[in-house]
């Protein structure tokens, strides 16, 4: 029986909104936002979309009007009462009242700031300018919107059964990964795939499939909305954005060299335990660890997000040992370009030597590789980054020169200040 | 939004009925039924379920009570007004009013006769006794019911996402077949999979997928209900049941030898064109063709349903040539144990030499092979056959001794009368 009212209601919508909630975003954005709201509420930043896969000509695939409608819709969103209740009342990382009342009050009144959109040479120039805590919350919804509009563009001409089989294949593909991961003892894996997901509904499906298929090995999702709806853990700590902006704000080379530690010093004022995770690669891991103050060795773990992950983890273990710490008590989080084979290999290599967990992104929530003609749904590398802070350009080096960003003279200066030598390039797929 | 009324309604059902329509059956059963209704309305027959896959212990998988509920539900069915209108008003094989008014009137008042069900040694003994035109209509619904109850038994303990992925895999598997078949020029293929389908909904899905994926290469379905709902051709001609019962009724060896031709003589009183299809293998193809009267060479085509199909088609071509017929004007229908590779091979081998079409059964509507633990959904060989007519046992020899049935002394007599020599055995999978 058709529910006539529902059918009519559905067809009354002008658009099918992609992002429908301000907490359809990564948990670490909210943690960082609270930190920024406390420590740098007036810093002015610019975030910009960067498509690292130049061959995907987004502005030819996606209609500008449709993109504007989706972005306008996001600007119309407000934190709902239930979402606010969840953020205030839920336990995150074992802690009640993770979010302070003053931050929650600000968030409850937040509307995302305006965006600037232009078509240039087959790509979208999409930027956001304003105060850091507001602008930073655009990153994830902007990425998720463009990813899903691109999916929709590719799917537009497919037949009904062709579409159903496409999703059947996607489901089969994910489930085969679940079946490969299920037998791995002690596996700890979370969904980090919000920003480059195929679509919201697909991410939600993937999360539920992982819950059923992996049980306790699936530790949660970075997506707050899905964590709330599915009653699972919201996962995430901090990102490159903090040291990048802190560094841009530094007034001297000495202050620049100190800035990554200032970030973590501010961070540990607020957080304990599994939230004290070092992200060491923003300006090169080696120098960062060599120069690290002793109090940092006490932190719980390290997230390896660029360069060869096994090398990164070995370096982490050696560093902890050199600082008199027991690596088996420490946590390594792998979160860069993971897929099943790599997860299995890393788990095997580091099991028992260090606590291991995985933040699995694009290849969990957007693996339609090889499933359409011309591979038109293959994942690609789209980011949305802080490119300026108080008028100064930001820089990221990372352990992979192919992921470096910023003006070349600034990159050179950062390399000099942080004493970054020769780096090995790794192809960036997603 | 949940449609509360629908949800409550759905939960009011005592069972989830498998067969919901008297025309959820093969079209050729209705054609044969009309013929039997005219020529042998009072012949008493017994049909019996025969599970050729002894290792599948059906009575241990399927609850007897559930089976009874489904069979009782089938006995409660009557031809609906819309179904009757469709049978009376539709064009079948280019002909209007295929079904005569006296037959339709009888069918509109039909209730299927009682069944007899017992558990014996892990199997069900399921038999139907009564007048031939009534009893014969049990064959397809009985088979489809047991097939689907078996599917349900296997699926009972699966998780929600596990189930969804199982169907995703099944869909992917069928679609890969569609993609292999799509490029084949001149392909003509119909669904013959009602009797051994995974479930009604699955067959209906497969048919729709074939419609979208194969376009005009998909010529229709043997299932009348689905043909009606999807507005496509109902496909089918005649089956072994006719010569088997005609043979059992023969009073002498001479009459026995003549009986297969009597069947076709009765048939051509009613039918023309693409319905004049010879099924030559009931008592051995070679002798049947050697002794065939000249008028039979004029028939449109031949259905190859046992033995090596390529050999069968070569024999048909040679026979037509020997009778002065042009094989390129004739139709060969392959319908035995087909899957994609075989279809492609046969099409390639006979294209241009004879008109070719395929009746694709079990591996179209029930290919879940390799998709569950212990391959618990793998198709198996279940039939429901006329075993007695007016108190006498029936016999089938076919071109594959593994498909022979009947009491051994009767098989010996038939082999003698029909001069069947050495036969090559082919494994019967479905």
UniProtKB/TrEMBL annotation, chains A, B:
Gene Ontology cellular-component terms listed: cytosol
Gene Ontology MF terms in the entry: glycosyltransferase activity; nicotinate phosphoribosyltransferase activity
EC number: 6.3.4.21
Residue span, Nicotinate phosphoribosyltransferase N-terminal domain: 23-146
Residues recorded as bearing Phosphohistidine in the entry: 240
Keywords: Glycosyltransferase, Ligase, Phosphoprotein, Pyridine nucleotide biosynthesis, Transferase
Listed InterPro entries: N/Namide_PRibTrfase, NAPRTase_N, Nic_PRibTrfase, Nic_PRibTrfase-Fam, Nicotinate_pribotase-like_C
Pathway: Cofactor biosynthesis; NAD(+) biosynthesis; nicotinate D-ribonucleotide from nicotinate: step 1/1
GO BP of this protein: NAD+ biosynthetic process via the salvage pathway
Swiss-Prot/TrEMBL catalytic activity: 5-phospho-alpha-D-ribose 1-diphosphate + nicotinate + ATP + H2O = nicotinate beta-D-ribonucleotide + ADP + phosphate + diphosphate
Domain Nicotinate/nicotinamide phosphoribosyltransferase per the UniProt entry, residue ranges: 188-422
Free-text description of this protein's post-translational modifications in UniProt: Transiently phosphorylated on a His residue during the reaction cycle. Phosphorylation strongly increases the affinity for substrates and increases the rate of nicotinate D-ribonucleotide production. Dephosphorylation regenerates the low-affinity form of the enzyme, leading to product release.
Function: Catalyzes the synthesis of beta-nicotinate D-ribonucleotide from nicotinate and 5-phospho-D-ribose 1-phosphate at the expense of ATP.
Family the UniProt entry places it in: Belongs to the NAPRTase family.
Listed name of the protein: Nicotinate phosphoribosyltransferase
Gene name in the database record: pncB
């Amino acid at each position: 029986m058709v529910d006539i009212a529902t059918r009519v209601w559905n067809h009354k919508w002008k658009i099918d909104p992609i992002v429908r909630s301000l907490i359809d975003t990564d948990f670490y954005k909210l943690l960082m936002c609270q930190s920024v709201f406390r420590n740098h509420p007036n810093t002015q930043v610019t975030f910009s979309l960067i498509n690292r896969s130049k061959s995907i000509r987004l502005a030819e695939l996606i209609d500008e009007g449709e993109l504007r409608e989706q972005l306008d819709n996001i600007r119309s969103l407000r934190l709902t009462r239930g979402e606010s209740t969840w953020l205030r009342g839920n336990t995150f990382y074992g802690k009640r009242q993770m979010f302070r009342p003053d931050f929650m009050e600000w968030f409850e009144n937040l509307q995302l700031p305006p965006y600037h959109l232009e078509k240039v040479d087959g790509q979208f120039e999409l930027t956001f300018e304003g105060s850091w805590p507001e602008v930073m919350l655009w990153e994830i919804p902007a990425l998720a919107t463009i990813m899903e509009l691109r999916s929709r563009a590719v799917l537009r001409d497919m037949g009904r059964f062709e579409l159903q089989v496409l999703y059947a294949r996607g489901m089969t593909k994910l489930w085969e990964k679940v079946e490969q991961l299920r037998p791995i003892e002690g596996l700890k894996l979370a969904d980090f795939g919000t920003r480059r997901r195929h679509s919201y509904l697909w991410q939600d499906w993937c999360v539920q499939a992982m819950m059923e298929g992996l049980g306790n090995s699936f530790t949660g999702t970075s997506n707050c909305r899905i964590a709330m709806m599915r009653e699972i853990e919201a996962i995430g700590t901090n990102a490159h954005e903090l040291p990048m902006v802190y560094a841009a704000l530094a007034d001297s080379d000495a202050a620049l060299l100190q800035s990554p530690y200032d970030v973590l010093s501010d961070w540990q004022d607020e957080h304990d335990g599994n939230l004290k995770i070092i992200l060491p690669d923003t300006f090169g891991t080696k120098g960062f660890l060599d120069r690290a103050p002793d109090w940092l060795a006490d932190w719980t773990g390290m997230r390896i997000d660029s360069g060869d992950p096994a090398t990164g983890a070995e370096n982490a273990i050696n560093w902890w040992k050199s600082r008199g710490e027991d690596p088996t008590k420490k946590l390594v989080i792998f979160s860069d370009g993971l897929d099943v084979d790599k997860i299995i290999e890393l788990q095997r290599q580091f099991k028992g030597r260090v606590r291991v967990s995985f933040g699995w992104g694009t290849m969990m929530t957007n693996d339609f590789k090889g499933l359409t003609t011309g591979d038109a749904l293959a994942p690609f590398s789209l980011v949305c980054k802080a490119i300026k802070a108080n008028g100064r350009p930001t820089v990221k080096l990372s352990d992979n020169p192919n992921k470096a960003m910023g003006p070349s003279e600034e990159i050179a200066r950062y390399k000099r200040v942080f004493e970054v030598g020769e780096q090995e390039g790794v192809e960036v797929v997603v």
